[in-house]
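Chapter summary example.
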Amino acid sequence: MSRSTVLVAVDGGAGGVVARDQVEAICAELRQEGHDIVRAHTAEDALALTQSRADLSAALVSWHLDAPEDVLRALMGRFAKLPVFLVTTATSVDDLPLWVSEAVTGYVWLLEDTPDFIAGRIGVAADRYLDGVLPPFFRELRRFDDTHEYSWHTPAHAGGVAFLKSPVGRAFFDYYGERLFRTDLSISVAELGSLFEHSGPIGDAERNAARIFGADLTYFVLHGDSTADRIACHAGIATDELVLVDRNCHKAIYHGLTITGGRPVYLVPTRNGYGLMGPIPPHALTAPAVAEQVRRSPFAAGAVGSDPVYAVITNSTYDGLCYDAVRVAELLGETVPRLHLDEAWFAYARFNPLYARRYGMSVGPEVLSDDVRPTVFSTQSTHKLLAAMSQSSMVHVKNSPRSPVEHRQFNETFMMHATTSPLYPMIAGLDVAAGMMDGPGGRWLTDEAITEAIRFRQAVARLGRRIRDAGDRPDWFFGTWQPDQVTDPGSGEVYAFADAPLDLLRTSPGCWTLAAGAEWHGFEGMEDGYCLLDPVKVSITCPGVDAVGNVGGMGIPARVLTMYLEARGIVVEKTDAYTCLILFSMGITKGKWGTLLDALLDFKALYDRGAAVAEVLPELVRAYPDRYAGLSLPALCGQMHEQLSKSELTALLDEAFTHPTPAVATPAQTYQRLIRGGAESVRLGEVAGRTVATMVVTTPPGIPVLMPGESAGEVEGPILRYLRALEAFDREFPGFPSETHGVARDGAGEYWIMCLR
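The structure predicted for these 757 residues follows.
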């Protein structure tokens, strides 16, 4: 960082003209030394700057400000080791609270030292802070870049020079800038270390990330969480070993089974009336329940051993349901020595007390005894909800004496999947993502995301209530999925969610846990505290169905809302039948979610006045004029709601995903037949009783409804009825297709699935 920013929070009128002139002279000297200055004359201004300026490198704060302690606490709460100098008087030092004396870097007596000297002290501290704030790899990459050495190694663009020799190359170079290409280096640059050997600054960065995330070992993965999942599986599962697999797993876990030859025994999660997939009930994770699942599995016969060696659980689920990871480890630890938590969407959990015990690296010897505690893997898609570049991921390991990970052995698997040509800016991004969460910064960043998500949720709830109370328009509105009421654990006072204090909602996990039997979540088999709804994953609910599956007469399918939002430049993460998922990441702002709220209100206004589809979704009408021209928005929603209700799609989805069909062959056995030409494409209407050769993955929810080697089931079985309902929906509503991997569509809209011959 070539420049720094110093906060000067001193009341301009305090201390008289001489003191004011001294402050101005200090600021002038700091500017002369290359530092930017931001001024605050009140505590309110200083707090606003602390909130909005992440580039502060030092602060000069007057104890005679109107609320100096608030300013100091805010600076400590956001910045780790920020040098803070306190402007005071000699007589007041002894009266300072002890925590203030411990927090500040030094004291400034304005009239006792020269402005040059005071500015020099602040400037040196700021420069030292800036050098220390950079994490290991990024710091060394910057130093290497600053040496401006010629590049004699790959990549061949040689720091971007090659692009300058071509018109299109020059356009590419100008678009991204020289620095990106100067830091795109080869593994030949020994001083930056090795991703394979985990040495030098790269190794330092991984060890620093392990400290920050609470792991014993951390590995940087540059091919996304899918590769991280495959590495963890490949390193822990051998051919024909039994593996407990969450049926709610990402398809990368199943690719891991294909690679390793592991034999899956499925743990089936619950679903609710919205079609949202919940957690695996705790009773299904007990040793007797697992033993019964193994006994009934067709893969138990011929397995290497009778006990599973590995278990995989998705945490959090795609809809934001987070397990008590310690409880899961306690239950499954009686059965398996290694537990893999796929935390692709949950890398921030360690950094906020709202998620205490709910992430893999919390499962340490201080919470579970070593005789039951498994070794835990957490695979995290760092780029999804932390600040890293796409495809940047990490594998974290918390070792247990029962089955510890030996680095050299694990690294053999790591090297099978890693690249010998890593993109160094991606490594720097992982290093920085970890550094951003270190110390108070992690709490500050997660607090902000949680707070904005809750504000949005409450804004939607209050709007819905105002619309109902007004009585001057149709009383429907969208909702957000969360408890209707919450209880303050201290006072016992019960609040409607819309009216609950913000501080209660953002600090009390009890406001978000799935109480046993509560209708708002609609999941069965819960125990209190076992599962928590993550407030930053916001499911917008549409009229048409509720959490326990009651179907309404009027409905607005979420696909229509999602298409409207996309037309307004708002892209949601996932769309189900009557819900769509919005992620409140660290990049969220009030302005950003305000546009979403405005769009929801506009959609309601368009629906209520019977606007034409051509007005609301003009691109859809241009693409399919024969189907949608002349149709109103309420008519389109009504037709779609009727189709979903008549086909019982949500109920079928529940049954299809919670009642897997019998398995005939393992994923690995099926894959061997597939690549040797032992498969053919079969029309959906003729697939009953056949063994599928590839995964059939419906999106939503983005997980397999059929695994390679499983029977498609009977003609009237839930899976084929579900797939036929999707096929019929796609035909009836062109432009709103279901995204189903493993299915090919012909010109007539028929589904075709690969099956074993």
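To summarize the output: The first strand starts at residue 4 and ends at 9.
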